[in-house]
Design a protein that fits this description.
single chain; membrane; mainly alpha; Serine Threonine Protein Phosphatase 5, Tetratricopeptide repeat; transmembrane helix; UCP030959_TPR_rpt-cont
Amino acid sequence: MPIFGLGIHILIALLFAVHVVRTHQQLYWLLILFSFPMLGSIVYFFAIYLPNSRLEHGARKAVAAAARTLDPGRELREAQAAFELTPTAQNQMRLAYAQLDAGNAQEAAGTFESCLNGVFGADLEVRRGAARANLACGRVDAAVAHLDFIRRADPNFRAEETAILRAQALGAAGRIADAKAAFAEALERFNSFAVRAEYIIWARSAGEQALADSLRPELEKTMQYWNRHTRGMNAELLKRLGM
């Protein structure tokens, strides 16, 4: 029985080791995982795997969506009031995200750019927000520039999300070949439902229907194993796919 338990710990550590390699985490995690199979796996799960999982992202989105439904403008009002009362860099960043979530992409882009002119000039989270806002309001070259900055500074920072955003921004900029290469690279690296779905959406918009059709079977195969909760988490993406 103890041998069986040890085997399970090592198997879990092996699964997380695969995640380390596939997502390009720091290689010292391999040493931690195999030196302390049980404890190392627990630490890795909470420190790396869970924060980057779609489960946690989905839970955060669900809570945020519920709050917006009950009072859509609350966060924007509170962020604006906080910044007017105490115009700190942190309150300015909060305001930028509130503007973006409220759909005021152009205002958000300006606020994010102001954040980058201060103490958050090298902050990758602010760069990501600036990229999202600029892409949403059509300033695609600025979005690409921010995403390229992130890629140079830390290729592992929110790697999958950043890869998708960059491919979308390149497509919006009319750089078709670059966008196609960026989507293909992201699919090879992450092979996730989100990447494949966004690749299909872009391919259709770019007139690459044959490419979109070739990507669809694997997408449908993945969906066969979904439950109602998983489908609900991906409802917005499925709507954009027309599925």
